[in-house]
Design brief:
By secondary structure, the chain is α/β, with parallel strands linked by helices. The chain contains 8 helices and 5 strands. It has a 5-stranded parallel sheet with strand order 2-1-3-4-5, with helices on both faces. The relative contact order is 0.18.
Length: 189
């Protein structure tokens, strides 16, 4: 009896993912736009900064790891910095200025015109992410937002990669898929 309930839950979760995957036609075009923007950024000698909270923080770090390290094959490293990785900076800013400032102050300190900020927020409403995006815009950086259909992130981003679902787990799964698609685009031919 217990297994049937578990099996039903597993199938329901998979069906939700399958439904989201079946609705990606426009999403792929947007991801291709992200890849092109990142190519231009790297060719111009600029840096990509990545931020997110919770599960989105792990996506930010994973993307940075794959681009600086390697994805499938050894290739040149790309300048991608996760703003979630330095616990001393995060806790210092949170303690002294408030958690809403943890990414904005890093963007202010590190970012320059021509750089890119990639912001992950499944809700699209994370105040610290939105503050960092506004700061990046003020500094003439490109803002790329990964989110679901709700919230303001899609409105402050120059490129908004919007998952075709409102389910948090599916948004995170599609964001991870997008990260892997972007990494694959930078693999050697």
């Amino acid at each position: 009896m217990m297994f049937e309930s578990t099996d039903s839950t597993l199938r329901q979760q998979t069906d939700q993912l399958r439904s989201a995957l079946d609705a990606l036609d426009d999403w792929y075009g947007t991801v291709a736009g992200v890849i092109e923007r990142l190519r231009q950024t790297f060719e111009n000698g600029n840096t990509v900064y990545v931020a997110g909270n919770g599960g989105s923080a792990t996506l930010a770090q994973h993307f940075s790891d794959e681009m600086v390290g390697r994805f499938l094959a050894t290739r040149r490293p790309y300048p991608v910095v996760s703003l979630t990785a330095d616990s001393a900076v995060l806790t210092c800013i949170a303690n002294d200025f408030g958690y809403e400032e943890v990414f904005r102050r890093q963007v202010e300190a590190l970012g320059k015109a021509g750089d890119v900020l990639i912001a992950f927020s499944t809700s699209g409403r994370s105040e610290n992410i939105l503050a960092a995006c506004r700061q990046a815009c003020d500094q003439r950086m490109t803002v790329i937002g990964f989110s679901g259909p709700a919230g303001d992130l899609k409105d402050v981003a120059d490129i908004a990669v919007i998952a075709p679902t409102a389910d948090t787990a599916r948004i995170q799964e599609l964001d991870l898929h997008a990260v892997h698609l972007v990494c694959a685009a930078f693999e050697p031919s």
